[in-house]
From TrEMBL:
Family designation: Belongs to the CorA metal ion transporter (MIT) (TC 1.A.35) family.
Listed NCBIfam families: corA
Name assigned to this protein: Magnesium transport protein CorA
Annotated function: Mediates influx of magnesium ions.
Membrane topology recorded in Swiss-Prot or TrEMBL: Multi-pass membrane protein
Subcellular localization: Cell membrane; Membrane
Length: 319
């Protein structure tokens, strides 16, 4: 689907205009949105707008890294939106010209719809339209970045809950939860860090040198991305600490189990020796014919076990 809106010179918004009216002199600037475009609709990027073939190729082939390319008369941005449920990324492409903004994405996105509806409702807002297509581009980028915050906050809430329930769950369950959180944080990091680098590159680009207002807008988004990146790194460090703590706790538990088994084995070793000796089928052995030999051997075994247990207690092996 292709939808278009035009902003007239007296700052009125007209939506649902045909694509052929984009260059009409009545409009100060326009926004064209390619939403789940078909192959025929995607061809308009070349036939109608005459964008660079490399930029069009980046639109049609997804999983591009966030970037900005400067072409004659317009800038091309590759951005990433986040699915809050799966944390998978969705590519959003923006062509920012002097009089037109073109957005291209393969899946319907709530962020784009919200910005579209917001702009459509701002009739005669001269301050909002002062920067032309840049306003809509900034609002799209800002909406995409704002969507990152709930995703990061959700992981932080799970991390806090994991710390609280640490004493009630088994180590195996806790370790699985920690590794799941680290996997989700890695997904977030793969999206947010490249977007942060993109904003840094735009801020230090000569294309907006000397223009304080655009720089302030991009600096605000860059600050948000810096905060998100720091939150992710902090959370990754916390999960690493939790992982190490759980591994140490599991090792201590294993050491305790091994200590108990060792003590039991040590106690029964001399008893097994005595039983093994008297289990041999020799005809002439001491005490075989003694009336109280059986009870004497059992008593010796009992006394020996008690003596060894007290010796282990004195050495602190059961602490």
């Amino acid at each position: 689907m292709i939808r278009a809106m035009g902003i007239t010179h007296d700052h009125k918004v007209e939506t649902g205009i045909p694509l052929e009216s984009i260059g009409d002199s009545k409009y100060g600037w326009s926004w064209v949105d390619f939403n789940e475009a078909s192959a025929e609709e995607a061809e308009q990027l070349d036939h109608f707008f005459h964008f660079h073939p490399l930029a069009i190729e980046d639109c049609l082939h997804v999983l591009q890294r966030p970037k900005v390319d400067y072409y004659e008369g317009y800038e091309f941005l590759v951005l990433h939106a986040l699915d809050p449920e799966t944390l998978n990324t969705e590519e959003v492409n923006l062509f920012i010209g002097d009089k037109v903004l073109v957005s291209f994405h393969h899946r319907r996105l709530k962020e784009i719809d919200d910005v579209w509806n917001s702009l459509a409702g701002r009739a005669q807002n001269r301050k909002a339209w002062a920067r032309g297509p840049f306003v809509a581009a900034y609002m799209v980028i800002d909406a995409l970045v704002d969507q990152y915050f709930p995703c990061v906050y959700a992981v932080e809430d799970e991390l806090d809950e994991l710390e609280k329930q640490g004493s009630r769950e088994s180590v195996e369950v806790l370790m699985n939860q920690v590794f799941d959180l680290r996997s989700r944080l890695l997904k977030l990091r793969r999206t947010i860090v490249p977007m942060r680098d993109l904003m840094y590159r735009i801020l230090n680009s000569q294309h907006i040198q000397g223009e304080k207002e655009p720089r302030a807008y991009f600096a605000d988004i860059h600050d948000h991305l810096l905060k998100l990146a720091e939150m992710i790194e902090t959370d990754r460090e916390m999960t690493a600490d939790l992982r190490d703590s759980y591994i140490s706790l599991n090792s201590n538990r294993m050491n305790g189990i091994m200590k108990t088994l060792t003590v039991i084995t040590t106690v029964f070793m001399p008893l097994t020796l005595i039983a093994g000796i008297y289990g041999m089928n020799f005809a002439y052995m001491p005490e075989l014919e003694w009336r109280y030999g059986y009870f004497a051997v059992l008593g010796l075994m009992g006394l020996l076990s008690i003596w060894m247990i007290f010796a282990f207690l004195k050495r602190g092996w059961f602490k």
